[in-house]
Specification:
3 helices, about 90 residues, single chain, about 80% helix
Length: about 90
């Protein structure tokens, strides 16, 4: 596997985990959350965009599995769509 694909996978997975963790924390606290959650969501956005960039950049390399490359791009897009939905529902 190409290192760019691995980096993209880690960033996309961490982005989704941070977003879901923030949702669970917000549900537990009843919507009364601190500013730290906003910072975590901003970090999640940065990780999703970075993961998408690394995922798209990995297609330039010949070596590696194309299915893994597609999967990382799809995970990054899912993370971005999840954050967009949260932004629109606020």
């Amino acid at each position: 596997m190409v290192t760019d694909t691995l980096i993209s996978f880690v960033f996309a997975t961490a982005s989704i985990a941070f977003t879901v963790g923030c949702l669970i924390y917000s549900a537990i606290k009843g919507g009364r959350i601190s500013d730290r959650v906003g910072v975590l969501l901003l970090m999640s956005l940065v990780m999703a965009v970075t993961g998408l960039g690394f995922g798209l950049y990995s297609f330039r390399r010949v070596e590696g599995d194309n299915n893994a490359k597609r999967m990382t791009v799809i995970l990054s897009i899912v993370a971005l769509v999840l954050l967009l939905v949260l932004f629109l529902l606020r």
